[in-house]
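Rotation project, supervised by the postdoc (A.L.). Task for the rotation student: set up a whole-complex structure prediction and record inputs and outputs verbatim in this book. Inputs entered:
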Amino acid sequence: LAKTTQPISMDSYEGQEVNITCSHNNIATNDYITWYQQFPSQGPRFIIQGYKTKVTNEVASLFIPADRKSSTLSLPRVSLSDTAVYYCLEYPWGGATNKLIFGTGTLLAVQP
Amino acid sequence: GAVVSQHPSRVICKSGTSVKIECRSLDFQATTMFWYRQFPKQSLMLMATSNEGSKATYEQGVEKDKFLINHASLTLSTLTVTSAHPEDSSFYICSSAGTEEMNTEAFFGQGTRLTVV
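Outputs recorded:
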C-alpha cells in the first residue's frame, strides 16, 4: 500500500510557479522524502530529496515542515515540457531493502 | 551520474511465448535491483526485489514462476515473462537501489513496453 497521498491532477500555465503538496501521515524516522517525475513511456526520473526544512536544486525546491507530515514540491516558472506525473515517496535509508513504493502520483498539465 | 539501462525498449510477442527483459547498471555495482509493472494511466507497482547471487523476493500476488528474475552478476538483472498472455501486456521498469553510503538516489531504466498478441 502507498504511504503517501497527493492530488490526482493539477493544471497550470506556462511561466507560473507550481506547488504540489504530499501528505506523509505515517512517515518513519529514518525515511527521506523523495520526488520523481515521469513522462509517458519512460522510467521515473529523480527530482529532489530531503529530510526536513528546505532543499533546493537547479530544477525544484522541496519544503518539509518540522513535523514532516507533509512535503511540497515547488517548480518555478513551469513550461510545457514540465507536463508529467510527479510522485512523492518515502525512502527508507538504511533499511534491509530500501524499495520505493509508488502512490497515485500527480498529473501536472501545463497549458500554453 | 549512475545510469540504469533497460533493453529492449519495446517488444511484441505471441501469446504463449517467453520474453526476457534486461536491466544493466552501467557504472556501478547493483547488489539489489527492483522490478515494477505499470498499466496505462496507473502508478508503478512493485513486483519483486532482485538480489545478486540469491533468489528474488516477490511482492504479494506476483507469480514467481511466471515472472522469473535472475541476478547473476552485479551489473545485470533479468526479468523473464514466461508463457506470456495478453493480460501481461504492460510497461515494465527496473530500478537500482539507492544507497545512503554513496548518497545516491534510485535510478530507473527507460522501461520496456511489452505487447502480447
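Student's summary: The mean pLDDT of chain A is 92.
Supervisor addendum: The first strand of chain A starts at residue 9 and ends at 13.
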